[in-house]
Amino acid sequence: MELQAKDLRKSFDGTEVLHGVSFSISSGKALGLLGRNGAGKSTTIRILMDVFKANKGEILMDGKPFCADDYNIGYLPEERGLYPKKKVGEQLIYLAQLRGASHGQAKANLKKWLKRLGISDYENRLLDTLSKGNQQKVQLAQTLMCDPDIIILDEPFSGLDPVNSQILKEVVQEQIEAGKLVIFSSHQMNYVEEFCEDIVILNHGNVVLQGNLKQIQKEYGENRIVLSAVDQSPAQFAQVLMQECDDLLTIYEQREYDLIIELRNPQNKEQLLQRLLAMRVDLEQFRLYEASLTDIFVAKAGDEA
User: Fold this and answer.
1) Please, what's the b/e burial string for 212-244 (b: 16 or more CB within 10 A of its CB; e: otherwise)?
2) What is the DSSP letter of 248?
3) Is the distance from CB of 271 to CB of 178 less than 8 angstroms?
4) Residue 286: enclosing H or E segment and its boundaries?
5) 305 pLDDT exceeds 60?
6) Are 54 and 8 in contact (CB under 8 A)?
7) In which region does residue 57 sit, left (phi positive, over 0), alpha (psi from -120 to 50) or beta (all else)?
8) Of the given ranges (131-140, 256-265, 294-303), which has the lowest mean pLDDT?
9) In this structure, what are the phi and psi dihedrals at residue 245, rounded to the nearest 5 degrees?
10) CA–CA separation, 231 vs 43, rounded Å?
11) Residue 114 gets which letter from DSSP?
């Protein structure tokens, strides 16, 4: 399956909040849908789920108009939406039946997912008696109960400790490998880097960056090198570099333990290394810089952007 969003526009009370959002995602991949609060992520997700209509634009599945009713969509919202005073098992079965499962199917899937997530003991417990992390695992069970074709995860790791985060990571990876179409929205960039091949960054309702994450990171790191010296602090090393190698580089960023420098010319890399060796600098690091997703996000969606 390939899902395409084309030129989605949405207005509320005469104010346009999505300004032509376009992206695509294929089965067996996870797309990172990123942006600050208010950037348009939730609006985009709700249009995909047919909660409300776009004012303009279209959504296609394999080149044909997409109808949400024709597909099983599993949605894990950032805000918990289950009933706190109801038993876990009862409400998950009820919600699965609302989505078309028979009682027998719902019961079998309940047992499967509670066991997989390590929360079988809580089937007959009231939801609000569970820890925050276990409530989040119940939410995930609800998302996957009906074997969805499309999975939308909004801050799925919220409230989880490292052990439960690992369980959730394994489950998400299993869904990707099973050929599901996964949309992953989170402010925890390390998880996005772990799961997502492609990203879309929204800022004020516009797509400001999209594409293959590894390629984007490579392009953002172009002409930049991470440097550190054994016997010099980053500040001392920076001073030496500006005195001896100013014709080759500029200081891009001074960090706690190392420097990121930017070459004035891509051909300067070998010349810089030779000059540092001639200066008898005891190099601890000399490696190409790969931008983190956090760096990229701040550059495209931060206040300066």
Assistant:
1) ebeebbeebbebbbbbbbeebebeebbeebeee
2) T
3) no
4) strand 283-288
5) no
6) yes
7) left
8) 294-303
9) -130, 25
10) 52
11) H
SS (HEC) of the chain? CEEEEEEEEEEECCEEEEEEEEEEEECCCEEEEEECCCCCHHHHHHHHCCCCCCCEEEEEECCEECCHHHCCEEEECCCCCCCCCCEHHHHHHHHHHHCCCCHHHHHHHHHHHHHHCCCHHHCCCEHHHCCHHHHHHHHHHHHHCCCCCEEEEECCCCCCCHHHHHHHHHHHHHHHHCCCEEEEECCCHHHHHHHCCEEEEEECCEEEEEEEHHHHHHHHCCCEEEEEECCECHHHHHHHHHHHCCCCEEEEEECCCCEEEEECCCCHHHHHHHHHHHCCCCEEEEEECCCCHHHHHHHHHCCCC
pLDDT in tens, 45-71: 999 999 989 999 999 999 999 998 899
For residue 302, pLDDT beyond 80: no
Looking at residue 155, its amino acid is E
Read off the tokens for 51: 């909660």
The H or E element spanning position 86 is none
The amino acid at 54 = A
Alpha-carbon dihedral sign for residues 160, 161, 167, 172: positive
Tell me the one-letter amino acid at 140.
Answer: L
Q: What are 47's two structure tokens?
A: 């249009």
pLDDT higher than threshold 70 for residue 304: no
Residue with tokens 């969509």: 73
pLDDT at 110: 95
